[in-house]
Every structure is written in structure tokens, then in C-alpha cells.
Design a protein that fits this description.
Strand order of the largest sheet: 21-22-23-24-27-26-25
Bound molecules: FE3-S4 cluster
Strand content: 15-25%
CATH architecture of the largest domain: 2-Layer Sandwich
CATH class of the largest domain: Alpha Beta
Number of helices: 23
Structural class: alpha/beta
Largest sheet: 7 strands, mixed, barrel
Number of domains: 3
Shape: globular
Helix content: 25-40%
Radius of gyration: 25 Å
Length: 635
């Protein structure tokens, strides 16, 4: 067996068709997704969390107005109520703090954040999921994943000086692209694994998310033991390695000796070239940190490069250590002083600029970051060009003021890794008396989430909007900082729904019938997996979407919220329907179960057929009005 198979074999996992139903040992949430997760937990009437849950406050800590801090107070009160842990504002980025404090080799972690696979650096199967899936897992229900293939990546040889873990994952991104990991668990094995510390393995697993991988995994070995021991957690170590004759669905071999420093060009993490090819590109900003590269090792190597030097005058160098424990160790070992003396600006231990919260680059300038994503506009500046590279390349470039091959620096400094970190758990609040403690605290920006309604026996409805092909979730509900502040306020998000598709839609909202349908072309709901693009229209009566085809995740989100996705059996019928026609569906539940729904267009007096292809579980969810109702009735 490979490591992935061994982890599944040691857990309660059942196979339902092409899906695996998995019960995670641990769950993590972060504040940007967490408020909605806990509002859903509340709506389902869950009184106590089943798995071990840690709620992190790490994304939006800038507190520019009351709404942000209101969210934090709500999360803290919910943690006490549910009997779960809370990592307080200022304690660090969820994936780094979780790695330090909770990750266990051989376990399963589910998180409402796409970089949850960082845990694979210490041999734990980490998977990122949508907020509702996570809320349901907190209730003790399984998490369903499409059965993944296992891609075995054999590492041979060892990295040359100045070549890093970041270069390994950038190499894979270049080779496999941002779609290359979809439906796969990427498992690393071979002699080269021994040459990498957990810090480095975590960087690699973190950015497996950029390939769309379900998860990434390293074995748990003596390096994992040394890492856990340095954190006073040796009791959590267990050996975990693939059998000598383990099989993989696919295999790739990387000879680490042949790699060189790499860099991702704007605006995609797989737009990778050698640093030599980018050399000389002028920079305005360099940002070091994020859940990808904010470990003590990353901070120490940057400090060793900058020691007794000053950054170039055209550079703003911002650094976010991954956790308070890392920051504390940096202050003990002198790493912090070396960075400050060189001109670095030390920010709070938080996601910050990675999420476009603060430190937006100047208009039209280049920013070099050690982060994992460089999509257009993510930095907060629409016309900024963001490059991604290792901390080593970033530090050397900070001295020259332009992208520079780190090998120019001369000999690569050696850094000492701490054998023992100080105890640091006082910023993680543990439930004192178990679940049920205190009142739930809610500021005015926090509103309940909408619940779907069960499928009626017959349905009369009208179309509220007809749209063309390739409508994205951004078209349905825009993203951006303004909308981020409304994540826990569905009613106030309503005026923005469909605003890009129909500028007048907000004027019609008050006149919409109780239930209505949306008529769409091909690939409806493409783009980001944002669940609000379903929740918000559902809250004002969207009960059906009849489309030529759907983006996969959007279709599943519709079902999760009790909105029925139907596809035209004959695309010509899409043309025949007018935007405000009225319809009737008879014996709706029976028709859904036969996977074919016949609809009568009352306005134009004709019938048309639609297909659904639902699994048994999906039919059950739709009949009950979505996943929250399903769980609510079950518990
Ligand atoms: Fe935070 Fe950026 Fe990671 S937003 S969790 S540091 S991808």
C-alpha cells in the first residue's frame, strides 16, 4: 500500500459509487470562511462538535471597521458554545499554527481553506472543502470526495545550494499545470525525501493546491519526529511510509540535483521559468511569508542573507512570519533584529497581503512574493505584476532591487534550526467546561444563513432571468474586499446579485415571486467555488436553474442548498423560452427520482424535457431542501 491507502485503511471510510465518505479526525476553519460555517452549524441546530475543531482568526485581522472585529467576537463565542478550540487574532496563519500544534501523522484533517493539504508535510491527509461541507463534518457527518487517483512523485538526489522546496513545487506546476492535480492525491517518496525537512515538505504540499490536487502527502519519518520533538510533541509521532512494492496510478521521477531556482511569472502559478530568464526585472515590493513560506527556516535564511546589509532603496520589503511562536523564536535568536536592521517591515503574523488585505503594490509595478498565488488583482492592485519565488530568491532580489538569481550572492548561508521551541499554547483558547458555555455574540453585520425549502409536489414558477453561456460565479455575485465584509450578511449581499448580468436586477428584487427559475446557457457557474453565488440568489427564491450545462462545483453547490439544476434535453428549447415565461412542473419529486423532468411552458403552451442525472444522495438532499435540512433532520 502507498501512504494514502494506509491512511484510508486506518479510518472509517465507505465507498458510495464513485465517492468516498470520509470522517475527518480534525477540522479547521479560518475567519474568512468560518463565520458562515458557524452560522450554518447554528442553523442546523448542532450543539457540540464531533471531530476536534480549531477555529482560526488569521485572514482579515486589519480591523478597519467594526464588522471585522464583530466577526472575531462571534467566532470566539461560537467556539465556547460548541466546545472547540480558538486560535486568537495574532497567533498566526492557520496552516502554520496547525502544523505546529495539532497535525498528526496518519490522521485526516478537513479545512474550510484550500491550503489545508499543508498538513501532508507531516504525513497527515489534509483536504480543503467548501464551507457547508465543513459545517456538516463538524456535525459528525462524512465528507464526500470523488475517489482520487494517486500520483507518486519519486524524489532522487538532493537539492543544490540556493535551490529550494519552492523550486520543487514550481517545477511540478510547470510540468503538470494548474489543472494537473485535479482528482489526484500527490504522494512523494524515494531517497530524496530524506533530504527535506518538514518545513520544506509543508511548502510543497501547500502548493499542491495550486495544481488542483485533492491532497499532497509525505511519509512520516525521522525528520517528522525531529520536527515534532522540536515542538515538544514527540508523543504525536508515528512512522508512516509506503510499502516497498507500493503501487501508484501514475509515477513521475524528479532528480533534485538537476533543479535550479525557478519563478512563476504573472498571472498564474504555473507560468514558471528559470530565475535567470526573469533576471533584471525591476521590483517595487518584495513580500515574504504566507502559509507557503513563513516557517522559522524561511525567516532565518532571509535574515542570514540580509544580515549587515540594507535593502535597495526602490524596495518595500514586508515580512509576515507564520506564527507567534516563530516570531518569538526569531526574537530570541537575533533573526528579527537582522531583518529589522536591514530595512524589512515586520507585519502581524497573519495572511495579510497574500489575501489582498494591506500592502497593495503601487500601480503598474512588479511585486516578488514567496506566496502561492499570483492571479491578476489578488494583490489588491489590478495592474500589478506579481511573481512567485523562494525566500532565498526574494531576499537576494531585495538587495539588488530587481529580480536576481540568488546564486549571484556567493556562498549560500547555513542556518541553524532550533532544537526546541518555547511552549506556546496561551493564544489557543480551549473550551473550559465542554460545549454550551456562554452566550452567542452577534454584531449587527452577522445575519442568519438562509435554509432551503423541501421540494414541493407540484410547482408553478416564472423565469426571473435568462443568461448566455459561460456565466461565472463572479458574474453571479462579485468578489472583492467590499463583498468580503458581507460574507456573514446574506441579506445585505442581495443588491449585488446578478448586477453584472443585468444592471436593473436589483430594482426587480422586491417584485420577484416566491419561487423562480434562472435560464442559462453552457457552463453556468464557472470560476471560483464561492458558495455565496448560490446562497444569495437562493435566499430570494431561486429554486431551479435550467441550463444547457453546469460547472461541476457550482452544480454540487446548488444541490447542497436545495436548488434544482436541470439541463435541457434539447438545446433548441433554450432558444424558444422567453425571459419571463411562466411554467408548471407536476409530480416534481417523482420526476426527479426518474432523473427526467418534463416542464410545461404555460406562456408559450409547449412542453420540454430536462435531464438531471442525480445520485441517490443528491436526490435525498433535493427532496429535503438541501444539505443543512438533511443534517438538521438527521441529528
Ligand atoms: Fe492565508 Fe494566503 Fe494561505 S490567504 S491561508 S496565507 S493562501
Amino acid at each position: 500500500m502507498n501512504v494514502f491507502q494506509k491512511i484510508l485503511a486506518s479510518h472509517e471510510v465507505s465507498c458510495e459509487g464513485d465517492e468516498l465518505a470520509v470522517f475527518p479526525d480534525q477540522v479547521l476553519t479560518q475567519d474568512a470562511t468560518g463565520t458562515v460555517v458557524f452560522l450554518q452549524v447554528e442553523a442546523m441546530g448542532i450543539k457540540k462538535a464531533k471531530p476536534d475543531v480549531v477555529s482560526y482568526i488569521d485572514h482579515n485581522t486589519l480591523q478597519v471597521d467594526f464588522r471585522n472585529h464583530d466577526d472575531h467576537r462571534y467566532l470566539q463565542s461560537m467556539a465556547a458554545k460548541l466546545g472547540i478550540k480558538l486560535s486568537r487574532t495574532g497567533n498566526g496563519i492557520c496552516h502554520q499554527v496547525h502544523l505546529e500544534n495539532f497535525v498528526k501523522p496518519g490522521g485526516i484533517l478537513l479545512g474550510s481553506d484550500s491550503h489545508t493539504p499543508t498538513a501532508g508535510g507531516a504525513g497527515m491527509l489534509g483536504m480543503g472543502a467548501g464551507g457547508l461541507d465543513v459545517a456538516v463534518a463538524i456535525a459528525g457527518e462524512p465528507y464526500y470526495i470523488a475517489k482520487p487517483q494517486v500520483l507518486g512523485v519519486e524524489l532522487t538526489g538532493c537539492l543544490k545550494p540556493w535551490v529550494t522546496a519552492k523550486d520543487i513545487i514550481l517545477y511540478l506546476l510547470k510540468k503538470l499545470t494548474v489543472k494537473g492535480g485535479v482528482g489526484k492525491v500527490i504522494e512523494y517518496f524515494g531517497e530524496g525525501v530524506k533530504t527535506l525537512s518538514v518545513y520544506e515538505r509543508a511548502t510543497i504540499c501547500n502548493m499542491g493546491a495550486e495544481m488542483g490536487a485533492t491532497s499532497s502527502l509525505f511519509p512520516s519519518d525521522e525528520n517528522t519526529f525531529a520536527y515534532l520533538k522540536s515542538l515538544r510533541r514527540e508523543q504525536d509521532w508515528a512512522e508512516l511510509k509506503a510499502d516497498a512494492d507500493a503501487a501508484y496510478d501514475e509515477r513521475i521521477t524528479i532528480d533534485l540535483t538537476t533543479l535550479e531556482p525557478l519563478i512563476a511569472f504573472p498571472h498564474s502559478p504555473d507560468h514558471v521559468k528559470t530565475v535567470t530568464e526573469a533576471e533584471g526585472t525591476p521590483l517595487g515590493q518584495i513580500a515574504i511569508g504566507s502559509c507557503t513560506n513563513s516557517s522559522y527556516k524561511d525567516m532565518a535564511i532571509v535574515a542570514a542573507i540580509l544580515k549587515d546589509k540594507t535593502i535597495a532603496e526602490n524596495i518595500s520589503l514586508v515580512i509576515t512570519p507564520g506564527s507567534r511562536r516563530i516570531l518569538s523564536m526569531m526574537s530570541q535568536t537575533g533573526v528579527l533584529q537582522d531583518l529589522v536592521e536591514a530595512g524589512a517591515r515586520i507585519l502581524e503574523v497573519t495572511c495579510g497581503p497574500c489575501n489582498g488585505i494591506g500592502q497593495a503594490p503601487a500601480s503598474g509595478t512588479n511585486s516578488l512574493r514567496t506566496y502561492n498565488r499570483n492571479y491578476r488583482g489578488r494583490s489588491g492592485t489590478a495592474d500589478a505584476q506579481v511573481f512567485l519565488a523562494s525566500p532565498e530568491t526574494a531576499a537576494v532580489s531585495a538587495l539588488y532591487g530587481r529580480i536576481t538569481d540568488p546564486r549571484k550572492f556567493g556562498e549560500c548561508p547555513k542556518v541553524d534550526l532550533p532544537e526546541r521551541f518555547a511552549e506556546s499554547s496561551n493564544m489557543i483558547l480551549s473550551p473550559r467546561g465542554g460545549a454550551g458555555e456562554g452566550e452567542i455574540w452577534k454584531g449587527p453585520n452577522i445575519k442568519p444563513v438562509p435554509l432551503g425549502s423541501p421540494l414541493p409536489p407540484h410547482m408553478d414558477f416564472s423565469a426571473a432571468l435568462k443568461v448566455k453561456d459561460h456565466v461565472s460565479t463572479d458574474d453571479i455575485l462579485p468578489g472583492g474586499a467590499k463583498m468580503l465584509a458581507l460574507r456573514s450578511n446574506i441579506p445585505d449581499s442581495v443588491p449585488y446579485v446578478f448586477s453584472r448580468l443585468d444592471a436593473q436586477f436589483k430594482d426587480k428584487i422586491d417584485r420577484l415571486p416566491e419561487v423562480w427559475a434562472l435560464i442559462a446557457g453552457e457552463n453556468f457557474g464557472q470560476g471560483s467555488s464561492r458558495e455565496h453565488a448560490v446562497m444569495v440568489p437562493m435566499s430570494i427564491g431561486m429554486k431551479l436553474v435550467i441550463a444547457k450545462s453546469f460547472a461541476r462545483i457550482y452544480r454540487q453547490n446548488l444541490i447542497n442548498y436545495g436548488v434544482v439544476p436541470l439541463t435541457f434535453a434539447d438545446f433548441d428549447d433554450y432558444e424558444k423560452i422567453s425571459p419571463h415565461d411562466e411554467f408548471h412542473i407536476g409530480e416534481f419529486p417523482q420526476q426527479i427520482q426518474s432523473n427526467r423532468v418534463r416542464i410545461y411552458d404555460k406562456t408559450q403552451d409547449f412542453f420540454f424535457d430536462t435531464r438531471c442525472d442525480f445520485s441517490r444522495r443528491q436526490i435525498e438532499l433535493l427532496l429535503q431542501g438541501g444539505l443543512m435540512n438533511y443534517v438538521k433532520h438527521k441529528i
